[in-house]
Amino acid sequence: MSSTLGPLLLSLQLATVTTLILLVLGTPLAWWLSRSNSRFKPAIQAGVALPIVLPPTVMGFYLLIVLGPYGAIGRWWVEVTGEALTFSFTGLVIASCFYSLPFAVQPLQSAFDSMGKQEIEAARTLGASKLDAFFTIAVPLSAHGFLSATVLAFAHTLGEFGVVLMVGGNIPGETRVISIAIYDHVESLDYATTHQMSLLLIAFAFVVLFSMFMVNRRLVKR
Amino acid sequence: MTADSNIEARYRVQRPQFELDVDVRIPMRGITGVFGESGAGKTSLLRCIAGLEQATNSRLVVDGETWQDDDVDFSRPIHEREIGYVFQEPRLFGHLDVRRNLEYGQRRTRRGDIDFDDVVALLGLETLLDRNTDTLSGGEAQRVAIARALLRAPRFVLMDEPLASLDRVRREEILPFLDRLHVQLAVPIIYVSHSIEEITRLCDYLLVMDGGRLVAAGQLQQVLLQVSVPALGGEEAGAVIHARAAKNDTDYDLTQVEFDGGEIWISGQHEAGVELRLRIRANDVSLCREVPKATTILNILPATIEAIEPDGGSSELVHLAIGNERILARVTRRSRTQLGLQPGDQVLAQIKSVAVRNAPAARR
Predict the structure, then answer these.
(1) pTM, to two decimals
(2) Domain A2-221 adopts which CATH fold?
(3) What ipTM does the predicted assembly reach?
């Protein structure tokens, strides 16, 4: 049982950490994308959306190089912490953040877009600073966007396979997430465990998505 | 605030198909109307004053305090400009109930000279406080928006066609509240509108804009007589006079009012002594040389012709002095020639109808 639960817990841990980081970093990015008329905006939007179209192996390959001990980030990390980023949980988190970025940014951006600037302008004329108006008006009015971003980033990280395989490998307790474990069990023809894990994942994913759509319906009604 | 404190606003905005280039002084008292066709730059001017729109050559001085000056690269951020802004749409915050919408600005102001319950009573919102904003009618929502702007304790309020998005019934529902604001609150209001009805009812001072420029400014009564300004001539040309109810005729549902020039009869019952503002359209005034023998017109007053201006095509606008008040009459060029009307002539003005504003006369 622990061989089933271990990878699942690791996956949940990875998805939680990644989602939190993406909400913190993705929110200002999405806000900027929604409000800006910069000529760099299309390029940045394209960059954010890349992980949707690229095969995970392509992302994984370059992340492996950059995060590896001879890569720009990887070398700096080794110098600072003395540990390698590749084949570690931390490396996996960084890779997941890139991989799941569009799934957090795009729902947020579309929520911000649909809000327009009317309420924000009203709040500003009522004495709210930009930051104040953002937290007291923009965030609550975009609640459904935050919900979608959270669920999609979380679910997408949970289901990630290719990038993990390239960057993280298959180290139990460190990088052996549930998708890797399932692949492993299939390879060794252990279909019973594969079923167990896969059904668990299907049930979990369904419950999460179902809850999101239920909550979303209530948010929209309000 | 001194008696003659004012707002000086200078802005230039250039966009394709649009230009704003103004340098205006707006008195910090009463209601100042900003009148003009759509596209005249009225809204842009308000947005510049609020800091919501970028302009060049900007300068904004409020009661001697510089809020914005491009020459020294200074601009007070939007939230530090102590203004109330009422937009065309209510722009209420959907995630907050009415009470918390109202408190939003009040919590963020340091000026504490405005009382929550007073403003709620002034706009008749007592029963709406716990409602969600999406359950309000258009008129109710706009009243909440006005109260929300007032509770921010602004130095002055900017209103951008606050009634434009409402139908006639809702508009009539809100106007009395605006009348009350005028009387009961000392806060100056800058009121943008393209409706001469609203302007003549509410405003004391008037700016007229056309093509992004200021084309007339001054006391409402005087500006309305500048009929060479396109927005003020034509079908809507008319004058405003101040009067006081004197005598009631309940049999015929009329009231006789006195003004600085005589008496006239108006429809309806008004309590004696009440100050009234009367709008008399040029189309409703005709002229004659002798007292007509039999006529349905109740009000026939001796007047002196001061000037005659062309008004396009077949008609002309005649400026008339009746005592110390001035009104306008539209006549055809042909009638003017037949009667030989000249400036300086004594004539009789027949006033066919008068629009009564229950709003009290301007506080001058």
Answers:
(1) 0.85
(2) MetI-like fold (1.10.3720)
(3) 0.86
